[in-house]
Amino acid sequence: MLEAVDPFIGTAGVSLPAPTGLAASWWWPKPQVGNTHPGATYPFGMVSACSYSGGYPTGYGPYELGTEGRPVPMMADLRASGFTHFQQSGTGAIRKYYNYFRVTPMVLSLDELGRSWEIVEEEASPGYYRAVLSSGITAEITVGPKSAVHRYTFPRAQDARVVVDLSHGGLAIPYGSTVPLRASLELLAPGVACGEIVVEGAPLAVYLEIDNPAMRQLLWYDRRLMPGGSRIDFSDIRPTTLRPFGLLFTGPADAGQTVELRMGFSLRGTQRARENLLADCGDHAPSFERRHSTTSAEWARHVDAVRVDTPSDERRTVMATAVYHSLIKPCSAPDESPFWPNDGPFMYDISTMWDMYRTQFPLVTTLRPDISVGLANALLRVCEEEGNFPVGYRMARGADRFSRQASALAHTLLADLCALGATGIDWNWALVHMVADLRRTYGEEYILGGITHPITHVLDLAFGYWCTALVARRQRDGKLADELAALSNGWPAAFDPATGLLRSSTFYEGTTWNYSFRLLHDMEKRIADVGGDDAFVALLDRFFGFGADPVTQPGQRPGRAELEAGYALGRFEGLNNEPDMDAPWAYTYAGRPDRTAEVVHAGVHQMFGTGRGGLPGNDDSGGLSSWYVWASLGLFPVAGQNLVLLNAPSWRDAEIDVPGGTFAIHTRDFREPTPDGPVQYVQSMTLDGRPLDRAWLTMDRLHRGGELVVTLGDRPGAWATGSRPPSRPLPVPPASVLGAPSTAPLDAPGEPTWPK
Description:
GO terms for molecular function: hydrolase activity. This is Glycoside hydrolase family 92 protein. About 25% of the residues lie in helices and about 20% in strands. The chain is α+β, with helices and mostly antiparallel strands and about 750 residues long. The strands form six sheets. A ten-stranded antiparallel β-sheet has the order 2-5-6-7-8-17-12-11-10-15. It has a seven-stranded antiparallel β-sheet with strand order 1-3-4-9-16-13-14, with no helix packed on it. Helix 4 packs across helix 5 and helix 4 runs parallel beside helix 6.
């Protein structure tokens, strides 16, 4: 599968074929661009490296700041002023930017630093990026877990230069630059230097080696050389006083001569950066080919963990690239936390956790459970050191406090890992922080009155209490589990009985429709409160646009009236955005797996494609790509509930490596699908040769491996219509035992049972 990956998918504005049928009725409120970059990456690595144009939001590409509609170019062609490190992957408007340590190969004077050159040729594969600039210089970059290796091929030149700018960071958009607070830079020996900058509160160190020590090595400040200087220190830099600074290597070059620059990085000083470089690249240059080969092999191991059988090269490319994009973030930097002295897991670039937790975290848990355990421990350390679980975390001091989007997301990951019996986590320690975190910010209002706004936080917090009670029960703390149970069942207060939708509130990037169909831990009651299966399905049909007219998507710079008219449709966001990406599987709880098949077919085959414009919206650090991986396999994880929903796969045969071996998905009477072709429906299933008459498995059962055989047909059958996925409310003791408010919204519904 590795050879099918195309890192350019999602780097440009959407260029998918015009949607037809059901998909034509979906409305896209977010930027119509994947916001990915094609730079060199390592699976969950600390470092990425790519050409730098200053474009929004990764630093690659031609676009200016955009939060809705078609992306707006700020330059006519693809250009680069150098090559930077630490990029986001597929994020939207979160206004946090990296792109540190810009390296610029040039044959002009230092006065020209900052100008850009046209990229006349480009190539990328997992772990490798190549660009030919109009200056005649060819750049190649590969990366390791904590390092980058650049190789530049120069034309014949009197003065070939490799310039490293330590003052650079951010984007070339208004208010997009990152200014270091402090900095130091030192020349250590011919061809060897080190430096450190403090950016957004985080110290970031680099150790550099060039493979041609005969090249003259100089410091520079404000584009002026500093002959004889060996060290620069800045103790207090402000935006008004910042002048660019860095170092350069210079010397004559013959045509075709190569120069290799090796860079090790650390958040714990230059000595650790040197150690990281040696660990990644060895103690001698050149090391480009060796590092590239090792990184490529590591990517092959990860991407090949999901295998599909298809005659379509295009579909194989979409799948392979989706797996690739799903495994870039978060960045794992073990023993590198700059904010506390303890060694152990440290992770950042969990930039869109409100999207990642539904699909990407369960995929990582399936393919790399060690990474998920590391992430859980890193989040627990953040909570202990900084006072709360984050809903996003970057390489910056302080958790991302952007909390309108969601609450209690770390609880979902922890509940899944606990249900799977994950080791390597102190579950008593975890339980303490899970409980405490639920009582902060929106949680206080929820405890006191059973309601908070944005209203979506009621659902988040109720589920957070459910997850925490699960961990408490597993830790045999029955009293605590009982105390949490009533609060876990407080979600009905968020819904308006008159409409069956969430109550009027403020909604981030959506409306009450987009947030009303999440997969709750008591879908049986949710459906009953609406009026039963038929009423619930009718709401879903209206939401997904069955029988509705096609819509017109926002254009460039859409105005307020255009956006308000689109939101007023109350329509599925069609994978352009992720707040409702689990909603297609809500039909399964109402006995209509056929409807799930129809919506998923439209999403899988019309919202994803090849080429730079092959994603329908921001990839959101793999949140969108991992949706495709799961959905196209005919699986969907219900995050936090140890549950996987089943549907018609879009591959004749597929295999996914799981902790217990291989989970194989085979089909009978399969027909290769097309975007405009008919939907195929599940007629029957067997698991390891035994009939499976329900549309779900537990996640731990999937993790054990096995063989799922799916028989398909052109019309809906009776399969799974009479057996619903489990609803899992918690038993609730009398309110007098709880010591909690006995308000109506928090009363226990019915006679729930504990999940098996």
